[in-house]
Design brief:
The structure is a homodimer. The first copy, chain A, is built from 12 helices and 19 strands. By secondary structure, the first copy, chain A, is of the alpha+beta class. In chain A, helix 11 packs across helix 12. The two termini of chain A are about 25 Å apart. At the A-B interface, helix 2, helix 8, strand 9, helix 10 and helix 11 of A face helix 2, helix 8, strand 9, helix 10 and helix 11 of B.
Amino acid sequence: MVVCSLVRMSRRSAVNLLSLGNRAVVGALYGSPLRTLHTSVCDPSSKGAFKPERVAVVTKTTRYEFEQQRYRYAGLSSEDLKQLLAMKGSSYSGLLERHNIHTHNVEHIVRSLRSEGIDVRVVKRGEYDEEVVRWADTIISAGGDGTMLLVASKVLSNDKPVVGVNTDPERSEGHLCLPVRYTRAFPEALQKLCRGEFRWLWRQRIRLHLEGTGINPTLLDLHEQQLSLEQHCQAHRITTMDGQPETGSLHQSVPKPSLLPVRSLNEIFIGESLSSRASYYEISVDDGPWEKQKSSGLSICTGTGSKAWSYNINKLTEQTVEEVLKIGKSLTALEIPLNREFIDKVTDEYNESLVFAPDDRRLFYSIREPIVNRVFSNSRQRGFASRVCVRSRCWDACMVVDGGTSFEFNDGAIATISMSEEDQLRTVVLEN
Amino acid sequence: MVVCSLVRMSRRSAVNLLSLGNRAVVGALYGSPLRTLHTSVCDPSSKGAFKPERVAVVTKTTRYEFEQQRYRYAGLSSEDLKQLLAMKGSSYSGLLERHNIHTHNVEHIVRSLRSEGIDVRVVKRGEYDEEVVRWADTIISAGGDGTMLLVASKVLSNDKPVVGVNTDPERSEGHLCLPVRYTRAFPEALQKLCRGEFRWLWRQRIRLHLEGTGINPTLLDLHEQQLSLEQHCQAHRITTMDGQPETGSLHQSVPKPSLLPVRSLNEIFIGESLSSRASYYEISVDDGPWEKQKSSGLSICTGTGSKAWSYNINKLTEQTVEEVLKIGKSLTALEIPLNREFIDKVTDEYNESLVFAPDDRRLFYSIREPIVNRVFSNSRQRGFASRVCVRSRCWDACMVVDGGTSFEFNDGAIATISMSEEDQLRTVVLEN
């Protein structure tokens, strides 16, 4: 166990300690001696202390800001905006209120950090890039889970800590964020981090290789929620074809699998872009035989993502479980209970079995709405794996990473989805 | 029971008989006396005879034709096309083979009709329009289920018969088509129709009213499979905005519900166009209380459609049923069987319960992947109803009719989904 003393230690040395791979050793990062240590109850020399020097705070775009930008672009005044929202059944004052709550919470975080002598850069999500990641030794996501996914998407190393703070707990679930009480009591969180009263959680992420025809290795960032479907596709076309007509698949033939510059924290979703069109593809699990499938898409998730989209694809409602048990009862004449309490219990246990640990090294694949008929088969609808290969037979499909970044994935393209220890994301777990 | 004799009867009178609403009475349509009755074993005077005069045969576009058009547009030769397909793992000769099978079957149908003295117009799906519907007294769909849906989409009356023939039984399911044996033995089908050895099936369809802001009552035809996602959205923009920037929702405010000129044979699907984005909306079933929901979309289907997309959304796999029964067993210590046979039986019974009769007057709604958390609730995931109202809270969503026609359905729009006897589609059922 290495104890880092108050002796001035270069940040690089501290980072090297962290990178030694010994998870029980947590280095400390110290404020530069040139900076006054403001009143702090933190003893940076304590075991396991975590005290960042340079923190980037990445903030979400609120719905209010979005509507303002959108309608200002259309030349509307605030009064027009109010009326328009009212017509749509939304409330201008409601949006403004959520916006103010978020802004207030961001200010609280920033003040708390600065009063610890930490150098803070506040960055809007649109301005967040690799330069910000390089500058910071820690990144705080100030928003909801979506903002956390965006923040994580640009952190490709496994040693730069990312911390999520839920700036609107009444509206956001914040699965990836600190417990909600720290939103208004952020100094407490900082103190716990400083005193080592937390643990590191290395969340395993997914990596992607692409090869074959019908691909466009240029990624498209959907994270900006403003990006409409039209712009999504248009951008794909612009980056592939430079004015050429609909021949995207002619453009690229990549003989060797190329590793994409993204890591998925939640899941990869593969499927036709248009939600009403069926997806055709072939799948091979852990180098098993290829199977032709037709479905409404394929999800491959991490332990972190097992509580997100994959969970919603696979979970059962009480209504469904009740009907299965009813049929089982009618076919066996056994006294299978059908009361509310029992049904809820079975449903909860089933749904809980879908969730697994964020640091688990396995990925979990699910076929969404498999179409099984004379032409298409299905051995298993879902399961764990180390590696999944998918060959597209789609018209106009995408591979979507964490609901935010997408890659064209059309007829002939082959994706290999796997995990590697290097791909972990370093996050913190604070007790509530 | 009315017997229609060989006396020359105007087509209009015959049609009027049909429209009398007495399902036990089936009028007959006679060849014009000016046309020679070619050798036919059919006695048009027999009870329940169905002998059309003017038949439009609407044909699908084969994958081969599609690829030809697509690459000819890009300036490729046949040789280039072959190579390109081979690179993608497809087979040029395979596509050509399917194309030839389809074409051969279409020729068989047309010859069979003409040898009965029937006036036939062969119409490609791209040329099929209201004029063709008006001209014909019967329409034959020559393709798969998709072609049948297209054909039905332009037949808004409930008395014009539509018959589906599956022109590639090895590749298409053909749920909406005649039994596959009639594909190569079409004269037999014609004879049975002529002899009244069939029954009429009036398939109940869905009608749609739209009101509120954020709508574009101009429908967009997605039926042409060539239509990519980009074109889909671009077309929506062109028809709404004439070059205006992204302000689609400013464009139309429709105070009174307007009845849309479409009838859905399978289902209406409502949801975000981008398959990875969650849909937000409010729903009211049979004039019940409004409920805010978040899910990956909402399907509302007919009896016909209960075997289509809705079935795939709701059906369970053996894997899922086995896990539910396992949990039930572990919580009760009852001897619930877990052998393959029993699990298959429960699964089949569950899945069969999702299917209901095409002439049933009820619609069936299903919420796909409901997201239930602190913010959003869910009383029932699915059920029967007479009427469903949905208010959009979506960014960039559509209402998709039979997977082919779509309407913008964004924040503020309200759709009322219901059924009426007038909306039935007249089809035939031939015994196998």
